[in-house]
Amino acid sequence: MYRKNENLIAVYPGSFDPPTKGHIDIINRASKIFPNVVVAITYNYSKNHMFSLEERLSMMKEAVFKIKNVKVEAFSGLLVDYLNSINSFCIIRGLRALSDFEYEFQLALMNRKLKKDVETIFLMPDKEYTFLSSSMVRELTFLGGNFKKFVPNNVYKKINKIEKKRRKNV
After folding, report:
1. Annotated active-site residue in 23, 29, 56, 93
2. Is 116 marked active-site?
3. Do β-strands 36-41 and 90-94 pair in parallel, antiparallel, or remain unpaired?
4. For residue 100, how many C-alpha atoms fall within 13 Å in the half-sphere facing its CB?
5. Smallest Cα–Cα separation from 108: which of 96, 95, 97?
């Protein structure tokens, strides 16, 4: 049932709003395990996004451009439909803490119910990033905290530019 070949594509889905160093850590780990990794960025209807889909795509592409076997794409709709469209069955998810597990486990089971050959691989980030989330970065940013060490440099520059404008207009 499993397909072992160099064409295997592992998909790391998410909204990545904004991309964090934790995300990049998971992408690096996945790129060492799988021959092809697609970072699949989507619009999450349950979130109030800080950045447009196009901005998130651009930031992520710039953050991972040195990793040769990683591609960044946008998708909409069901993840399993996207997997079918690129001939993949493998989903990468990051687990920061035990509290993530229940939600991620439910997602993995739902995806498998929708597409029976789907496999979800859970990767743990470096301990330095186990507390880090995009929502924490957004809140820290909004409250004027120092977020530089939590995001790739290109993302820091983008957020800093936006925040300077926002604070000037407040």
Report:
1. 23
2. no
3. unpaired
4. 14
5. 95
* Cβ contact 118:151 at 8 Å: no
Task: Give the angle 117-121-124 at the CA atoms, nearest 5°.
Answer: 170
Rounded to the nearest 5 degrees, what angle is found at the Cα of 42, between the Cα atoms of 12 and 130? 50
What amino acid is encoded at 142 in this protein? F
* Catalytic residue of the set 15, 31, 88, 134: 134
Q: What does pTM read for this prediction?
A: 0.91
Indicate if the pLDDT at residue 166 is higher than 90: no
Cis ω for the linkage preceding 18 (within 30 of 0): yes
Percent of the chain with pLDDT over 70: 96
The predicted model gives 103-118 an average pLDDT of 95
Q: What is the DSSP letter of 6?
A: T
The total of other beta-carbon atoms located within 10 Å of residue 68's CB is 8
Is 138 catalytic? The answer is no
Is residue 167 part of the annotated active site? The answer reads: no
Indicate the residue type of 163: E
Sheet of 9-14: strand order equals 70-74, 36-41, 9-14, 90-94, 119-123
